[in-house]
Each structure stands twice: as C-alpha cells, then as structure tokens.
Specification:
By secondary structure, the protein is mainly beta. Helix content is 5%, strand content 49%. The protein binds beta-D-fructofuranose. The site of beta-D-fructofuranose has 13 residues, from strand 1, strand 5, strand 9, strand 13 and strand 17.
Length: 487
C-alpha cells in the first residue's frame, strides 16, 4: 500500500538502500570460500553480530540479527532478517530495520520480538543523534515490512547521565508485558525492569538484578524466562574476570510484584571462546530455544576477505535438570542434516594403536561418543578434527581423564588460532558423553547431554579434512561411537 507518511518513506528508503548494498556484496562474493559454514546461519554477505528478535510467529521462526550492510566490519547497525520452519533451513528476507529517525540514526542495536495476533512487534535500542541509547518499537503485520512506532522513543534511561542502556527483551507474564534492559552503574552491570499493559507505554519498575562486583562491568543482552520450577536471567556481561566477555545463566526466582530476582547460582551458558549475546524464544511446543552469536568482539575474522563476518550457533534447547542446573542440547531437528551414518560400536584403544577414524574425511561432521571413564586406564583421550594429511594442521580436543577436564587446542587450527579454551567437567559421572558438530570454521561440543558446552571458531585449510582418535597413557574404553557426515 502506497503511503505519504514521511517517517515511513524515510525508513523504506533506508531499508532499500541497505538491501541493495547487501545484494551487491552477494554478487561480489568469491566463488570459493574455505570458511563459510554449511549448516550454521550466516548473513548473505557483510557483517553480522548478535541474534535479535528471535521469535516464533504464525508457524515460523523469525531470526533477526545485528547487521552492517555496507561492510564486513561493524558499523551503523541494521537488523537483518530470516525465517525458518524448522530452525535448520533458513530463508533470507529483506533487511527489517535501518537507521532513519533522530532517535535511531546512530544505529539499531540489539533487542527482541513479540508475536501478538497477526502482529510481530520488535523492540530495539535506538542510538540517538547525541549518542544516547533509547528503547524503540517497530511492528509488522506481513512479517516482512516493519514500521517504526509513533511513540518512539518508547523508553528513555531512568538516569540520563548513563550512556549504556540497551538490548530490551520483552515477554508476557500473566497478561502483563515486561521488559528488561541491560545497563551499568559505578562499573557494575545491572538489569532494569519495566512493565506495560499495552506493549507501547512502559513504566519503570526498578533494578531487577545487579552484579556483586564479580559479574562484569556492563550487562548486555539480558533475557528472562521460566525454566521448569525456576526463573532464568541470562546475560552477556562485559569484562568478567579472566575472559572479557561471557554469557551466563543466573537461576533463581523472579518476584513480579516486588520486581526482584532472588538468585541462587550462576553458570556459563558455554565455556568456549566464540559464543556471545545469546537469546531465547519459546515455540508452540513450549520449548525454550536458544541461539547465540558464534564469534566474539576481539576475534580476528579471516572470513572478511571472503565478504562476510559472523555466524550463529546451532539452535539449542534449554531445560532445567533435576539438580537445578541448566542444560542446553542441540535441537533434535538437526538430525535432518545427517546424510551418512557410521556406527563404530565399542572401541578399545591403546596408546599407539592405529587411528580408528582414519577412513573418515569431512568438514561437516557430527560425532557422538560415550567414554567409559571408570573402565579406562588412559590419561588422555584425543580427538583431532580438520586434520591435514601430514598432521601439521588440526584442532585437538583433549580430554584429561584424571583431571576430568577438556581442552581445545587451536595452536594448529589454521589462520589466527586464538586461545585454547578449557572446561572443568562438572559432576562425577562414570561416563563422559561427547557430542560434537564440526562445520568448516566452527566446533561445537556438548558434554554429558548438554550439562556444559564449548563453542569456538577455527580457520583450517580447505584440504584439512581428516579425523583422528587416539589414546595416551593407557587404554581407552568407548562404549559407542557414532559419526554422521552432514550436508
Ligand atoms: C552485544 C552488543 C549489544 C549491542 C550490540 C551492538 O554484542 O554490544 O549490547 O546492542 O552488540 O551491535
């Protein structure tokens, strides 16, 4: 429908210009690219960071993302957009949001979406002309074209001296709308809570939670959701202890009347290096599904030479385990990616034995194995993926059975290796279930049915396709090993 509303026309023009820039970048993509994932979501071209507006709306999943259509570097943010029926195959849609108004001309930062009848509402942070961060609303009834709300900016910071005030996440609880926004004061991260009866006018409730001084200087991308008998506050704290940016779950109970969150404990969402800004949504089956940016702010990005930067993790289901900890597991629908299955059954491997996985080659592989810790005398299980024929290149996943920890050694992973993340395995199970997904430039590992996870990027040569399993310091007993080649 034609419109003469100047705001709508300005936004349409900004979207069209940005979309044309992306299409041009797509036409200029090189024919060969060693790094582009085959089954993880990436933008058609150019820069991408956080997942935004992840929502189940009228039978399909919508995923938006922080996007810079004009470059492979971060720049004035837009929202890219894609839809999927199963969270495995994605269809790109035109850019949904572009800076066009005084309240968002500096960029459209992260936020969330809500499905309400036939309308899909988007909540985002606008960067105003003066650099101040404000919360804004846009809506669509066709799921493709989004109009910015007349009420924008809908939420201003309670303290106008605070510049960090961003990433609204909106949800409904017992008929009332709630919004959390990430912010900071005196060098400690916190989350502010807002309430609304009509989704447009927002009332400030108060500070929902804050860092005790150890949980980061600024809380980005907050998310709140019920999970079994408890509530979860998920955050991306900046500058937390050793690693600069991290993603954590804080579990506890949200008192909607008091506007307080009584927390009992926290855990990492993922212990790898390339996992940030996770966001969840609930689908029509009541599943809580999480997706994150499979990258981080300080990474080197060799894919920029190939016209793109940034990828999403696999979608994961989030659940509370009987012991109150949160588990994240890859979605069962990902089984649709499997094209060939090999079962190796029980493997008894001694130090120096030939590689039982020597016949397999690939850059899109899923492996699942159950290690019998109690029956093994080995000190280390080693799994090398993306290995070159001469063994000079490869990403080594080493499980130390005595220390019960896992290290991913990227020193020979190809271009710009990055640090080697380690993870102390929780619990004292007799077995370790290792479930891995390799996708060209990424490794995602789920430990003990999602009790812990590790995600990271690697940049090996295209021809490095080998897989090696070895034992050192004794005998390794693996109950069952399954390997799938993925499409
Ligand atoms: C998190 C983040 C958000 C912000 C966005 C900007 O990675 O810093 O806080 O909205 O990225 O692109």
């Amino acid at each position: 429908m034609a419109t003469s509303d100047p705001q709508v026309l300005r936004h349409q023009a900004a979207v069209a210009k940005a979309e044309a820039a992306v299409q041009l970048a797509v036409r200029n993509l090189p024919p060969r690219d060693p790094y582009r994932p085959s089954f993880h979501f990436t933008a058609p071209a150019q820069w991408m960071n956080d997942p935004n507006g992840f929502a189940y709306h009228q039978g399909v999943y919508h995923l938006f993302y922080q996007h810079h259509p004009y470059s492979t570097e971060w720049g004035p943010m837009h929202w890219g957009h894609a839809v999927s029926a199963d969270l495995v195959q994605w269809e790109h849609l035109p850019i949904a949001l572009a800076p066009s108004e005084p309240y968002d001309i500096g960029g459209i930062y992260s936020g969330s979406a809500v499905s309400l009848g036939d309308t899909l509402y988007l909540f985002y942070t606008g960067i105003q002309e003066d650099g101040r961060q404000v919360q804004c609303i846009a809506a669509s009834t066709d799921g493709i074209t989004f109009h910015k709300h007349k009420h924008n900016p809908a939420v201003l910071p309670p303290d106008l001296t605070v510049m960090d005030f961003r990433d609204p996440k909106v949800w409904n609880h017992n008929g009332t709308w709630y919004m959390v926004v990430g912010s900071t004061s005196n060098g400690s991260g916190h989350v502010l809570l807002y309430r609304s009866s009509d989704i447009v006018q927002w009332e400030f409730v108060g500070k929902l939670a804050e860092s005790d001084g150890t949980l980061g200087t600024m809380w980005e991308c907050p998310d709140v959701f019920p999970c079994g008998p408890q509530d979860v506050l998920m955050l991306s704290p900046m500058e937390m202890e050793d690693r600069s940016h991290r993603n954590i779950f804080i579990t506890g109970n949200l008192d909607y009347h008091q506007g307080t969150f009584a927390s009992s404990r926290w855990q990492d969402v993922d212990s790898g290096c390339d996992f940030y800004a996770a966001q969840t949504t609930e689908d029509d089956e009541g599943r809580r599904i999480l997706i994150a940016w499979m990258d981080h702010w300080h990474a080197k990005r060799p894919s920029q030479e190939y016209g793109w930067a940034g990828a999403m993790t696999l979608p994961r289901e989030v659940k509370t385990a009987p012991d109150g900890t949160i588990r994240t597991t890859p979605l069962p629908a990902l089984a649709a990616l499997r094209v060939k299955h090999y079962t190796l059954g029980k493997i008894i491997l001694n130090a120096g034995d030939p590689n039982p996985l020597a016949e397999f080659r690939g850059d899109a592989i899923e492996i699942r194995m159950t290690v019998k810790k109690a029956e093994s005398s080995a000190s280390t299980l080693g799994l090398i993926v993306r290995q070159s024929a001469d063994g000079a290149q490869g990403t080594a996943i080493r499980y130390d059975l005595r220390e019960n920890n896992l290290e991913i050694d990227r020193s020979k992973s190809g271009f710009s290796p990055g640090p080697n993340p380690t993870c102390q395995i929780k619990g004292d199970d007799d077995t370790l279930v290792l479930h891995l997904f390799i996708d060209r430039s990424s490794v995602e590992i789920f430990l003990n049915e999602g009790r812990q996870a590790m995600t990271l990027r690697i940049h090996p040569d295209e021809e490095s396709l080998g897989v090696e399993l070895f034992s050192s310091g004794g005998t390794l007993v693996i109950d069952q090993l399954d390997l799938w080649l993925l499409r």
